[in-house]
Automatic annotation (TrEMBL):
Keywords: NADP, Oxidoreductase. One of its GO terms (molecular function) is succinate-semialdehyde dehydrogenase (NAD+) activity. Residues 3-455 form the Aldehyde dehydrogenase domain. Gene3D superfamilies: Aldehyde Dehydrogenase, Chain A, domain 1, Aldehyde Dehydrogenase, Chain A, domain 2. It comes from the Bacteria. PANTHER family: SUCCINATE SEMIALDEHYDE DEHYDROGENASE [NAD(P)+] SAD (PTHR43217:SF1). This is Succinate-semialdehyde dehydrogenase/glutarate-semialdehyde dehydrogenase. Belongs to the aldehyde dehydrogenase family. Pfam families: Aldedh (PF00171).
């Protein structure tokens, strides 16, 4: 079956690529294994030079890359351009800090363990398979690629099937920067090829960003093969607004959380839990601001957000809204499928959402917000934690005691106070519960795929 670029703005097929054959997959595995034997023996300085050159190439070609992203998955050109430059910054971060993150260390004095010399070393493990999503086709993949290569591993990228041109670009970028041929390659394969790849002993680990179902299947296959896995499986993030919150700042961030990237972001707020004292004002201001957003052509200046990435994603979002509507939720704005070509969906706000509604339990990957009133801060914390997901959360308050309550009490991998949830190369990223395990980014991210070797000398 060919792998196609479906333009979500028009719904039309722009280009098709042939899926890789078994012979091509075998050649890629062999090349990755051979490149590892070369790359593992290079110095951090050599790898950093190649990574900086690859980052320079990406920055120089950022507009071209952004056009590809917008055409393939529909985000606005401005946000795609930001993604390209952010990815280059992430590459430079690991080029500059990998040697420090992975420096050998002696955690105790040698005499405390009866030795003359001890060391804990961080060494590469080999080819790592990355199964990546379409919502941030360059940045999401780069969060794996940059640290993996700087650690001395090689990478095989199985990207989402609807972003093949972004995937192919990444598959060539690092060799253009100077990395050994085969160090990072793209596999154009369908999802069904992932589990057989994990049975191949040459692949030493896997990282996946995707659905809970996909993550569970990959984790089971990795476990069966005794291979390390890192999973990021989405979220239903809480956005908590307490009485002392600055609504002038909170409302625009709340809107951006739901319409940025057309709502297709794991880490952005989806459940808006608002203290009763400010609930009515927040609902009115937030709903008005959501209704004022403009969806449309991602290349047009007036567009707030573009189409959904696929027809299936839009259908799933609308099914969640319809299920909530049928069970008594109020649609304050949006909630209707627009006529015309493309996979657009309007900014939508729901109130009166109850636990029996699917949208209260599942991740809604689109520009839809659910409002929930809270009696007090502890009730807001309880509601925030009543989710199978635990990726991140945003809390708006000026009181130190409330900041401490939520910073310690939220069952999430990240807490953002009075600001937009985001990812930074310098900070760990990941979740708990059904949002997955393991971490990307920062020092802990690069240490996910290394052999932590203890050296003890008498």
């Amino acid at each position: 079956m060919p792998i196609a670029v479906h333009n979500p703005t028009t719904g039309e097929v722009e280009k098709e690529y042939a899926a890789h054959t078994p012979e091509q997959i075998e050649a890629a595995l062999a090349a990755s294994t051979a490149a590892f034997e070369t790359l593992r023996r290079t110095s951090f300085e050599e790898r950093a030079g190649w990574m900086h050159r690859a980052a320079d190439i990406l920055d120089a070609e950022a507009e071209q890359v952004a056009r590809t992203i917008s055409t393939e998955m529909g985000k606005t050109f401005a946000s795609a351009l930001f993604e390209a430059h952010k990815s280059a910054k992430g590459m430079r971060h690991y080029a500059d800090h990998a040697a420090t993150y992975l420096a050998s260390e002696a955690p105790v004095r040698p005499d405390q363990v009866g030795a003359s010399r001890i060391a804990v070393r961080y060494e590469p493990i080999g080819p790592v398979l990355a199964v990546m999503p379409w919502n941030y086709p360059i940045w999401q993949a780069m969060r794996f690629a940059a640290p993996a290569l700087m650690a001395g591993n090689t990478g095989l990228l199985k990207h989402a099937s609807n972003v093949p041109e972004s995937a192919l670009y990444l598959g060539e970028l690092f060799a253009r920067g100077g990395f050994p041929e085969g160090a990072f390659q793209t596999l154009l394969v369908e999802g069904g090829q992932v589990l057989p790849l994990l049975d191949d002993r040459r692949i030493r680990a896997v990282t996946l960003t995707g659905s809970v179902g996909a993550g569970a299947a990959v984790a089971a296959a990795a476990g069966r093969n005794v291979k390390k896995s890192v999973l990021e499986l989405g979220g239903a993030d809480a956005f908590v607004v307490l009485p002392s919150a600055d609504l002038d700042a909170a409302v625009p961030v709340a809107v951006n959380a739901r319409v940025g990237n057309s709502g297709q972001s794991c880490i952005a707020g989806k459940r808006f839990i608002v203290h009763r004292d400010v609930y009515d004002e927040f609902e009115q201001r937030f709903t008005s601001a959501m209704a004022a957003t403009v969806y449309g052509d991602p290349f047009a200046d007036k567009t707030t957000f573009g189409p959904m990435a696929t027809e299936a994603v839009r259908r799933e979002v609308h099914e969640l809204v319809e299920d909530a509507r049928a069970k008594g939720a109020r649609v304050l704005t949006g909630g209707e499928l627009p006529d015309g070509p493309g996979w657009f969906y309007p900014a939508t706000v729901l109130s009166g959402v109850t636990p029996d509604m699917r949208i209260a339990r599942e991740e809604c990957f689109g520009p839809v917000a659910c409002l929930f009133p809270a009696e007090n801060a502890h009730d807001a914390l309880r509601q925030a934690n009543e989710s199978d997901f635990g990726l991140s959360a945003s809390v708006w308050t000026r009181f130190p005691a409330e900041i401490e309550l939520f910073s310690t009490g939220l069952e999430t991998g990240g807490v953002f106070v009075n600001g937009f949830t985001s990812s930074f190369p310098q900070l760990p990223f990941g979740g708990v519960k059904d949002s997955g395990y393991g971490r990307e980014l920062a020092g802990v991210g690069i240490r996910e795929f290394v052999n932590i070797k203890t050296v003890w000398q008498a």
